[in-house]
Amino acid sequence: MDWSLKKLLDWATEYFQKREIDSPRLNAELLLGKALGLDRVALYVQFDRPMNDTELAAFKALVQRRASREPLAYILGEREFYSLPFKVSPAVLVPRPETEELVELAWNFLQSLQTESPQLLDIATGSGCIPIALLKNQPNLVAVAFDSSPEALALAASNAEAMRVASRLSLQLQDFHLPWQTWAEGPFDLITANPPYVSEAEWQGLEPEVRDREPKAALVPGTSGLEAYEALLPQIARRLKSPGLALFEIGAAQGEALLALAAQSCPDLKGQILPDLAGRDRFLKLQRDLPNIPS
């Protein structure tokens, strides 16, 4: 059978539909573009172009990987986040739209500061998507980011170099459960974190792409899902400037418990739960001496 680009896309789309892969056409297009080194526009311009055996084999290998529920971002090797192309691998979580919302909240706060060179601390940085997106959009910002995974830090360093912000980002190896080193003392104008917050029970019910492929340690801190915050929140108050802001991504059912924990761990900070665009509780905001922070 002679395979044109269009025929192959139609076949792959149907194949993904039968296997209940989300966005089957988009997956097919992106994987074919990966196999051929073409963007989606170029695919459509060459719709009738025949595929040779080498190209067919390369594409079908990618299709099989996706059908086995390997995340699309891992196959492509990158994920767009805050309009920037971030390299990703199985060493880090795939950046998600909710975390883009955290970046937007953080950026709004930075715009309100009258500080010449604001300081950011990002906790459990993974691919570096939060601090790098902020550094890219805030030229006077400097940041420290840490993670407990050397592989994640290597990827974050590569992303920082690619985005040309490496000179303003210090990456450190640190487990937030252990005593923090002196570089994390600050104080900082802004603290951000997308720590693990999925409970063990919730993890069991996640999609296979997440449960079986993404690093469990970056998702699940323990049985309840609150363990990371129990370790982090007592560390926050003394590291936050006045005025200052800390933003944490949280699970949709954790807001009430985390407000109570924050009131106990850092009582001099004002706590608030903010929703994501879907209306679900998604962010814990802790602020010092900032009554009118944009949110």
Give a written overview of the molecule.
It is elongated, with a radius of gyration of 21 Å. The chain has helices at residues 5-18, 24-36, 40-45, 53-67, 72-76, 97-112, 129-137, 150-162, 200-204, 208-211, 227-236, 255-265, and strands at 78-81, 84-87, 119-123, 142-147, 169-173, 188-193, 240-249, 270-275, 281-288. The relative contact order is 0.11. It is of the alpha/beta class and 295 residues long. It is 41% helix and 18% strand. Strands 5-4-3-6-7-9-8 form a 7-stranded mixed beta sheet, sandwiched between helices. It has a two-stranded antiparallel ribbon with strand order 1-2. Strand 3, helix 7 (129-137) and strand 4 form a beta-alpha-beta unit. It folds into 2 domains: 5-68; 82-288, Rossmann fold (3-Layer(aba) Sandwich), CATH 3.40.50.
| Order of SSEs | HHHHHEEHEHEHEEHHHEHEE
* pLDDT averaged over residues: 94
- Radius of gyration, whole Å: 21 Å
Distance between the termini: 57 Å
Largest sheet: 7 strands, mixed
Fraction of residues in helix: 40-55%
In terms of DSSP E residues, the strand content is 15-25%
In CATH terms, the superfamily of the largest domain is: Vaccinia Virus protein VP39
Secondary-structure-based class equals alpha/beta
List the uncertain runs: none
- Total strand segments: 9
Q: Give the neighbour order of strands across the main sheet.
A: 5-4-3-6-7-9-8
CATH topology of the largest domain: Rossmann fold
Q: In the CATH hierarchy, what is the class of the largest domain? A: Alpha Beta
Which architecture of the largest domain would the CATH scheme give at its second level?
A: 3-Layer(aba) Sandwich
Q: What general form does the structure show?
A: elongated
**Count the helices. How many?**
12
